[in-house]
Amino acid sequence: MRVNIPIATACVALFLLGYLYGAHKDVSEAKNCEVSEKSTATLTRTIALAATAARYVFMQENGCLILVYAPRFPVLTRGTVAEIIGKQETPQDAFAGIQEYAEFLRDDGINLVVRNAEVKVIQKGDAPLDTFRVQIASNIAALFREPDSSLFIAMITGDQGGISQEVKDVYRSSGITHILSISGLHVSIIAILLTVCMSVFQVPGYIRSMLIFSLLWAYIIGVGSPASAVRAGVFWTCYMVAYHARALVGILTVILFTLAVLLTSSPQIINTIGFQLSVTAVCGIAVAIFFTRKIRVAPYLKAAISLCAVSFGATLTTAPLTLYYFGTVSLVGVITNMVVVPLLPLATYLVLVALVVKLFFLPLALMIAFVVHMFFAWILFVARLCASIPYGHFEHISFSLWSVFVYYAVLVFVIIVLMKRFKISWRQWWI
Q1: What number of other Cβ atoms are within 10 A of residue 403's Cβ?
Q2: Which of 311, 289, 318 lies closest to 411, judged by CA?
Q3: Which residues touch 104 (CB under 8 Å, ≥6 apart)?
Q4: What is the pTM of this model?
Q5: How far apart are CA 320 and CA 426, in angstroms?
Q6: Nearest CA to 226 among 279, 186, 191, 194?
Q7: How far is CA 364 from CA 139, 354, 373, 420, in A?
Q8: pLDDT tens for residues 389-399?
Q9: How many alpha carbons lie under 13 Å from residue 147 in its C-beta half-sphere?
Q10: DSSP 8-state code for residue 52
């Protein structure tokens, strides 16, 4: 009997989504989260690291999650058991002036908040991935000088604590602040690198794909599984499944499948800002590239047009959400991204190569490090130049929720007009 691959794929996907939904429904909320001045808990994740402070999430024995604001040093790893000393508050009381953030913490499962906490370590954590990440950061700091080392540590390990506020402001004003964290862009770079490396091995395609995505998820877990990286990892995994099943091959179909997986495993994620920005950015890039394929140009111009499409699509679709949530918009971001983004894959590869070469031949590693320094000196120069353009960046703008819906309604109308202009049917979006 001949197996219908698309139907079989849909059945397996439906079964997995049902399992994820059932697993989510079985999770019971923590009870008896009483406020106290002292409590013993275990570190489950690190939210953010700054130059002198850190935000951790600890779990008590009864399942209560505590958001702890503590000194950065000593560096704590997952599994650390500690006594947390400080005033405990509910998110609503701790952030009475910014209820939106309190609601966000509640949706994230946070039950209590301790600000200005004293953390006394009872037992150190033994998470090998956290230890490995700290060692990588130490090697980067030993090989690269500032401000390069802080930038590379942030890009590869997710620790932004060493980046100066001046650099953050310049990158934000020029619209490239996304390169300072482990985002979907970085995961895509790693996926492409693994694909290129694995292409030299003469093995069946499905084995090659399994190796690629095993290593990709090892990287995502190794850097602490930030939400943006997990979302990108799920997208690339769904794309791999679609490719090998010869089903769900349309980019919008893969996006919807990815959304179904993410929302089934964690429905509350739909309320997070990062998730909304990721979805709109991916959709904008996909739609922009889809239309550029309909434009007939010389082959040597295709790469430049695709690059413009990626930058323009992401900027155009994320702009209203950025305005609504942060009140900021960078008009020069499209230009800056077109100049900067093409350099990121090569720079990231060179950083990884330099770390490996350092183990065998330090002088060569230093030479590679100098080349990477030149790349990022150029990126910082471009960022500062674009940030200095008058009226290129606006802050403290009030943008209402209804304006967001009007913006996207107009955008959909423009897409429909372009579909008629290029004679594109709705069916072409899915195949």
Answers
A1: 13
A2: 318
A3: 271, 272
A4: 0.71
A5: 25
A6: 186
A7: 15, 8, 14, 56
A8: 888 888 888 88
A9: 17
A10: S
